[in-house]
Amino acid sequence: MAGTKTTTGAPTEVTQKHNKGGIGESTLRPDGTLKVTGEFAYSSDMWHEDMLWGQTLRSTVAHAEIVSIDTVEALKTPGVYAVLTYDDLPAEMKNYGLEIQDTPVLAHGKVRHHGEPVALVAADHPETARRAAAKIVVEYRELPVITDEASATAPDAVLVHEGRSDEYIEHVPHPNIVHNQPIIRGNAEEAAKKADFIVKGEYTFGMQDQAFLGPESGLAVPSEDGGVDLYVATQWLHSDLEQIAPVLGLPEEKVRMTLSGVGGAFGGREDISMQIHACLLALRTGKPVKIVYNRFESFFGHVHRHPAKLYYEHGATKDGKLTHMKCKIVLDGGAYASASPAVVGNASSLSVGPYAIEDVDIEAIALYSNNPPCGAMRGFGAVQACFAYEAQMDKLADKVGMDRVEFRQLNAMSQGTLLPTGQPVDSPAPVAEILRRVKARPMPPERQWESSEGADVRALPGGLSNTTHGEGVVRGVGYAVGIKNVGFSEGFDDYSTAKVRMEVINGEPVATVHTAMAEVGQGGITVHAQIARTELGVQQVTIHPADTQVGSAGSTSASRQTYVTGGAVKNSCELVREKVLEIGRRKYGSYHPAWATAELLLEGGKVVTDGGEALADLAELLEGESVEVEAEWRHRPTVAFDKKTGQGNGHVQYSFAAHRAVVEVDTELGLVKVIELATAQDVGKALNPLSVVGQIQGGTTQGLGVAVMEEIIVDPKTAKVRNPSFTDYLIPTILDTPTIPVDVLELADPNAPYGLRGMGEAPTLSSTPAVLAAIRNATGLELNRTPVRPEHLTGT
Amino acid sequence: MRVNFTVNGRQQEADDVWEGESLLYVLRERMGLPGSKNACEQGECGSCTVRLDGVPVCSCLVAAGQVQGREVVTVEGLADYAKHREDSHPGGACGSVCGGTSLQEARQWQAKGTDGQTGEGGELSPIQQAFIDAGAVQCGFCTPGLLVAADELLERNDSPSDADIREALSGNLCRCTGYEKILDAVRLAAARQEETV
Q1: A448 touches chain B (CB under 8 A)
Q2: Are A646 and A421 in contact (CB under 8 A)?
Q3: How far apart are the C-alpha atoms of B136 and A525, rounded to whole Å?
Q4: CA angle, A701 as apex, A205 and B60 as ends, to 5°?
Q5: Which residues of chain A have pLDDT under 70?
Q6: ipTM over 0.85
Q7: To the nearest whole angstrom, how far is the Cα of A240 from the nearest Cα of chain B?
Q8: B33, B36, B141 member nearest A214 (Cβ)
Q9: What confidence tens digit (pLDDT) does each residue in A15-58 have?
Q10: Is A36's Cβ below 8 Å from some Cβ in B?
């Protein structure tokens, strides 16, 4: 073969030169050039001389005992190097998990959901591996499936996990409940007596998928010391490491992890997927092993957003003041716990939304079932609640006879309002203001499809399908607002680490930033370079590849990375600056009194006084010396919620977003066209305005997706997934996505670095209920379920 | 089987290709050109879009044997392809009337561009530069396919309307951006093209 085969190895360092790019500027991505030329090495692009391909065999049934597994024929297949089952696991520890170690590396004795990994194959061609896996014969004895709250909590229900010994089992009302969190504040029963209007509602939220485009993939390379080097796309290297090393029977230092290019994440890479499997195959065969899921397998390879049932009751006086709220939120966590306990904490504590209500009675639970496992996805428990409480607000406003936005504004929380957990919101909470902004925006013109030549069908519901020329098309407008916590809550030690070095290279002062932060597309590396420039006054910043050779950065999730790892980079830069100034004082202190007396800054490659006088060039000052600091950084501590009352200062920070949706609905065919999704969000401080707007638009679109199309459909009788493909699981295309004008507010949080507010998730909350409200407004239908499908609109 | 074809202007030969192998697999795993992405491998997402004799196709749906004797352009060859187009047919398919952008001119945009350039420079096609400048790249996994599709759109239509852009890119999924900045990027590339007429 004459083709040029290039080795795609470890991710390259990215360096930005000649760029002012401090914080607050729309600096461009340092990896942008690599990504537009196709040179950026994503995890599925990894390649190694003599590598093998790994393949997973997954269960074809949802709940069954495994009677036998026959691997003989698979092993005989030419080109196959290894076939592994549960019996081949090398260590005593055979499970992993984010919070509860209940997930088997390979099924032992039982499978608990459709698509659970049962066996592994390594072969010299991916097709060989697939064919060999198909030759493995597994005999199942099927068990009844648990698919909802009723079947999970029935007195004689089969237990999904027998003999639980995790920390939650003491408090849950049934062993098929992973975790429950009640929150009681005030007296909802008493307060309800003051209500002139009471509104009850029952809502259903479908199972959404993160549907990141880059499939789960990575390359494991066995090393001479008996360890393994793993190049993988993940959201949290150190969390993976903690789960991988024990099941490999290796100390953590023998499992070296490097982040390879990540093609999106959205929570779907918080859990382990192929990491352990690739390492097992590499250690068994002594050869590098690459695993790349195809799209079908990807739907089984990661957890999804919890589908939910939500039961709400709100009361209001005739003046429009909310009196009380009662709710029960039932989240289906599926077969394994994943992040379910934390999702329960978020859903319960944020179930009231951004409103001031003193008397509440709340409970959120997550079930164990035989449905696909669910865990983290952008918005994390707050999304489902927002869908329900915003529908309630509209119903209640209508009962009171108030404008829906004014009703929300009247009841909006503000700085100082207590959450149902009793925690005060101690930073700006511009809920009424962001609602005002989306409402004040000019409306998009009516009937944009009409022109002198007739209808432009491209602008109509159904688009080029030519389903309508506007006959049955009606317009609707809807509003919604939401609150999301930032960072890990409930007493979690949510720290991050950054190593920053400053030295002179080719006569120029250069800063290198090394963290284990997963850049999943959010732009963290851009922001880190901006912070280093701002704090250290250098132009050139090198971002070292993320790996486990530096301390943990925590997860790229919960809107926390810019806050926490950004805070760690800032902190480390400040410590580097102190050391640089010490060198300056030592070298030049005797020449100018300002070294001892003035406040000194690093700016434009120089040491300057706060009066602007330049004292030294950094390049000269640092010649022959380098300064390096590795330091951790923590935000304010939080505490666990009380198990019975839910009280406690469990959250760090909040972010707020509001949406106004304008939709047009073809009432004959039940097709929806979203015309515009205007949004306003407070981000505290926009460190990179271009990235901030991109995040808000992307999050808004994911909310739009679950409003009108996205749902993993699980057969209620068999718990099998019906639509694991991009043919059948639909995500919005550019034709489904409307204009998304974004209004960014910057009300600084005095407790956060630069005043910033974690902002990646909030836009995903309110866009779904805004679209639903708009569709209700257009059609007059109640629509208590998302996604809305054509049959819900046409009654068919 | 053996397959002979041209990739990004260079003659290539692949041996021992399985009948079932896709063009995408051959490009990524045999040619060492991983720029075309493997997001769904069923023709739904457009991440693996390449030009086959000038026509945008999902390379995951093209059997490797089908490209025998034909010309393939991937994202890795996009800058060269754009340069060649400008050199030989200024203004692309629309002829000299609607103009076009030479690489020299593209460099001039870089010089007077926004407040910063990324990386070490290098030669980018106008649409590649516009994607960077407009913030249309987040995780970037969809980017190669979108670039190939958008470049082809601008070749045949130098001032596309928003509806034209949406139609042309409707086969390319993006999960990160919400598409607004992708629209911005295509508009930007088209506007820069116009400026230089």
Answers
A1: no
A2: yes
A3: 16
A4: 100
A5: 1-12, 14-19
A6: yes
A7: 21
A8: B141
A9: 655 448 999 999 999 999 999 999 999 999 999 999 999 999 99
A10: yes
